[in-house]
Design brief:
It is a single chain. The protein has 267 residues and is of the alpha/beta class. Helices cover 37% and strands 15% of the residues.
Length: 267
């Protein structure tokens, strides 16, 4: 383990090691609809073959950096769950406890789900699509309550209060339903576990980053998170931000970030 991740402090004149938290955010590997450049949201699509390799590579990167998670959290969506399984298998962490929650699901894209992003940008304009994708308080067109794609009509959400299940969401909505789980479950886990892995989605993870780094609406609009690359946050034992970095070479990271940035453009 990189000793630089645990800074030294002084207690009563003696040098001691401060046990900071390693909180690893992992966006799922490329999904079948990522590959086709479609709005996915809560649609439960599988990983692509590239996504499977990305998930395995994420686990290998964790192993190379000496990071075996002690507990993990994921959304209810199979692309995040499968990414977590594959990453844990590669880094030797399949024995750890895992908790799943709908609160870590991707932002619900409403009636846009299934549409090609570039085609939608050509029809409505890149600025509108950027707002639908990244705008903090902008909601895409809503699904009707009787639409089979609505989570109220899906078995996996039957234990969730119907009033909490969205037919569309803005990023603000996503943050609002994610933060209770962060505060009630993830932060308390830091008392028992010093290396925590969260496998989720571009927008639910953007919400966590915004919360930790105190980003404003303009800053969060510009934030992109690539698939399958471990994003390490060093936090205090109370969950306060200290530093962050990706576990990947800068050139490759910049290439992957540019790919995410260009998804909503008309080609």
């Amino acid at each position: 383990m990189d000793k630089n991740l645990r800074p030294l402090c002084y207690y009563k004149g003696k040098k001691t090691e401060q046990m900071n938290i390693q909180c690893i955010l992992l966006r799922h590997g490329q999904s079948a609809w990522n590959k086709e450049n479609r709005f996915t949201g809560w649609e439960d699509v599988p990983l692509s073959s590239t996504g499977i390799e990305e998930a395995k590579m994420a686990g290998q990167l964790l192993k190379e950096h000496g990071m075996v998670p002690e507990i993990a959290f994921s959304s209810y969506l199979q692309r995040a769950i499968k990414t977590l399984w594959l990453a844990l298998e590669e880094c030797g962490g399949m024995h750890i406890p895992v908790e799943k929650t709908w609160r870590l699901n991707e932002k619900h894209y409403g009636a846009l789900q299934g549409l090609n992003k570039a085609e939608t940008a050509a029809k409505y304009g890149e600025d509108q699509v950027l707002l639908w994708r990244r705008g903090y308080a902008v909601r895409p067109p809503e699904l009707e309550a009787n639409d089979l794609r609505h989570p109220r009509n899906q078995t996996k959400y039957q234990s969730v209060e119907r009033s909490e299940l969205p037919g569309t969401e803005s990023l603000a909505d996503t943050v609002q339903r994610m933060l209770p789980f962060w505060n009630s479950t993830i932060v308390p886990s830091f008392k028992r576990h010093k290396t925590v892995l969260i496998a989720a989605h571009g927008n639910s993870l953007r919400g966590i980053v915004q919360h930790l780094k105190g980003l404003n609406e303009e800053e969060i609009l510009a934030l992109n998170i690539p698939t399958g690359i471990p994003y390490l946050f060093e936090l205090s034992p109370e969950g306060h931000y200290i530093s962050d970095r990706y576990l990947m070479e800068e050139d490759e990271l910049n290439r992957r970030l540019e790919e995410v940035k260009n998804q909503g453009k008309a080609h």
